[in-house]
Every structure is written in structure tokens, then in C-alpha cells.
Specification:
6 strands; 8% strand; mainly alpha; two-stranded antiparallel sheet; single chain
Length: 267
């Protein structure tokens, strides 16, 4: 990221044997903190979008080299299955082998559409908690990037969706629409290309929201971190929204069959 002129923290020194890094300190001005203090959303989200525009404009061979692991079927499937493994049992909902098999088959069919699309570096947790405003830097370099250690090679829609469909805060549909238009206009994505991109966006949104609902339930049940439960209602709304896309009709039907609307809340 640093070689490509993005603002990732500089590694000043390292001791891999003992597990220590001395990192550049970006301060405390996360986008989350700035928003809590009353900062205007528009320029912060525009800056975050412009970082993705710059990243996704680069050749795949530059940003997603062969040594970078792919965001493949197995990773995507196992993440989505966290909904079955943690959320459903927490609500006393049975997951039969037949139901699990159907769930996984539907996802694999959906992921095939995603893999047909473009390929880039996917940071995987791209949202306001992990973005920082760096005073004294210009353009996209003013956006400090954190929490990218699990990055993979995958579809560019993932980070865009992660930013605009945040599990931890509500984002007005009008702001989402303006940011999507900004992104698509800058990268000259129009017509059928935008339609295909929006299909991948919806598929990855549903996959991520299913994963996050499972993870937040696990953080409560396994780790005793109940604070995450307050977000599950929001993430369910986002998942239901994603499932309205025509490409996701089979997954919507599976969800309606196996997870009653009354159960779509924190356990």
C-alpha cells in the first residue's frame, strides 16, 4: 500500500521472534471519532470513496499479485455459514443437513457471478472505524488505512459495500447513492457493466451481513462481549435489503423458510 502511495502505517522496526512491531502513530482521528464529534459525513465518505477509486483503477497484477490469497468459494462459504453455526442455534433454530446443503449450494451459485467480475486488492474491513484523517497530507494520502492484515484478492465491490453498508452505524440511503454515483462515474462504469457490478455488490453484501450476524453472536456467546448484540438488528435490516435483489431470490426464499422474521434480532 505504501509503495502505491496509500497511507498505511510505516513499520519503523520489527522483532518477529518476540512478536513486536514499532509502527507509525496515526493519532486518534478515526473517521468514527470525527463523526461522533460532529464532522460532516460527506467529505469523509468522499475521501474514503476516492481511496477506493484510486486503488481499483490500478491493474490487478499490481494490486493483487499471485502471492495474495484469493477470496475464494471456501472462504466466502465458511464465512456465510457462521449464520448457521452461531446465530441460528442461539435462537433454538435447527439446521438440518438438508438445509445446510441447500444454503451452501445457493451461495456457490451466487459466488460464481462474483468471480466473473474484476479482481483487485480487497482490504476486507473497510469502514469508518479503520479509516483515519491525517492532517498535513493531501488528496487520498490524507486517509490513513488500518486493519488490512487479512487482505485478499477479490471483487472490488466488497470494500465499497463494507464502507456504505456499515454494521455499526446507519448511513442515509441518499448518501449511499451519492457515493456510489461518485465511484461509478470516476471509474467509467455504466450500463450493463454497472448492472453486473451491482449484482456482485448485493451478493457480497448478503454474504458479509450473514457473516457479521454470526460473528456478533459468537462474540456474545463465546467471548462474553454483549456490546456487539446491539448491532444485530441493523445488520439484519441490511441483509434483508440485499436479499431483495433479483439475483438473490433463492437465498431470500431459504431465509424466509428457515429463519422466521420474529427471530431476526439479537438472541
Amino acid at each position: 500500500l505504501r509503495l502505491l502511495d496509500f497511507s498505511a502505517p510505516e513499520i519503523i522496526a520489527e522483532d518477529l521472534v518476540n512478536g513486536f512491531l514499532l509502527l507509525e502513530d496515526f493519532g486518534d482521528a478515526t473517521f468514527t471519532n470525527l463523526l461522533k464529534d460532529g464532522a460532516d459525513e460527506e467529505p469523509l465518505y468522499a475521501l474514503a470513496i476516492d481511496v477506493l477509486i484510486a486503488l481499483h483503477a490500478l491493474k490487478a497484477s499490481t494490486v493483487a499479485p499471485d502471492w495474495l490469497p484469493p477470496y475464494d468459494d471456501e472462504r466466502l462459504r465458511s464465512e456465510a455459514a457462521l449464520l448457521l453455526d452461531w446465530f441460528m442455534p442461539a435462537h433454538g433454530l435447527e439446521v438440518t443437513p438438508k438445509a445446510r446443503s441447500a444454503f451452501e449450494r445457493i451461495w456457490l451459485d451466487l459466488f460464481a457471478h462474483v468471480h466473473q467480475g474484476p479482481r483487485t486488492l480487497v482490504l476486507r474491513d473497510y469502514h469508518v472505524d479503520n479509516l483515519m484523517h491525517l492532517a498535513g497530507r493531501l488528496g487520498i494520502e490524507a486517509c490513513g488505512l488500518l486493519d488490512f492484515q487479512d487482505a485478499l484478492a477479490g471483487h472490488p465491490a466488497y470494500d465499497l459495500m463494507s464502507l456504505l453498508q456499515d454494521a455499526r452505524r446507519d448511513i442515509a440511503p441518499s448518501l449511499q447513492a451519492r457515493m456510489l454515483d461518485r465511484y461509478f462515474y470516476a471509474l467509467n462504469i455504466h450500463g450493463p457493466a454497472r448492472t453486473e457490478y451491482e449484482r456482485a455488490y448485493a451478493i457480497l453484501a448478503a454474504q458479509r451481513h450473514a457473516k457479521v450476524i454470526g460473528i456478533f453472536t459468537r462474540l456474545d456467546r463465546r467471548d462474553g462481549k454483549r456490546v456487539y448484540l446491539k448491532h444485530i438488528g441493523r445488520v439484519w435490516r441490511l441483509l434483508e435489503q440485499a436479499l431483495t435483489h433479483p439475483a438473490l431470490s433463492d437465498m431470500a426464499a431459504w431465509t424466509n423458510t428457515h429463519i422466521p422474521a420474529a427471530k431476526r434480532q439479537a438472541p
